[in-house]
Amino acid sequence: AGKVYIQASLHADELPGMLVAWHLKQRLGELERQGRLRHEIVLVPIANPVGLEQVLMDVPLGRYELQSGENFNRKFVDLSDTIGDQIEAHLTQDPAHNLELIRECLRRALHAHPAMTPLQSQRLTLQRLACDADMVLDLHCDFEAVEHLYTTPEAWPQVEALSRYLGAQA
């Protein structure tokens, strides 16, 4: 069975993602009770509890960490060079073997990586939850935007139906 990772409100002022996650949780609960879920689903409805606490004059902020000024959706740990160097000699022609090798190296590297601040700890926690997923959905919204999805050309066949269903324009 595969794994789907879904997070909402990484920018804590993007409250509709939390609402979507709540409705999704209700529906997933029904499917689970019916024995119809075929994959592990990790749902993180509030990916940014630190930002959720940031309120000024009754207005939720939650897009930038107040202490450092860093965007909550930036500067995640980049292990691409480290993992690439570790696995290069161990890759084979077997895609399943390579996928498991990459995921295991990512898990080990993320668990060994130290967190020096609450913001780094939050980022690492989210990366650890998502690093072995077959699909990652990061729910965002804005005050003014067209429906859109970020994906890769390789993943397009898997997300095209979702894109059309949502009416994504980009």
Automatic annotation (TrEMBL):
Any single Pfam family the record assigns to this protein: AstE_AspA_cat
Cofactor (UniProt): Zn(2+)
Molecular function (Gene Ontology), one example: hydrolase activity, acting on ester bonds
Span of domain Succinylglutamate desuccinylase/Aspartoacylase catalytic: 3-158
Keyword Transmembrane helix in annotation: no
Superkingdom of source: Bacteria
Keywords carried by this UniProt record: Hydrolase, Metal-binding, Zinc
UniProt-listed Gene3D superfamilies: Zn peptidases (3.40.630.10)
InterPro entries membership: AstE_AspA_cat, N-alpha-Ac-DABA_deacetylase
PANTHER family noted in UniProt: BLL3975 PROTEIN (PTHR37326:SF1)
Name this protein carries in UniProt: Succinylglutamate desuccinylase/aspartoacylase family protein
Source species: Pseudomonas brassicae
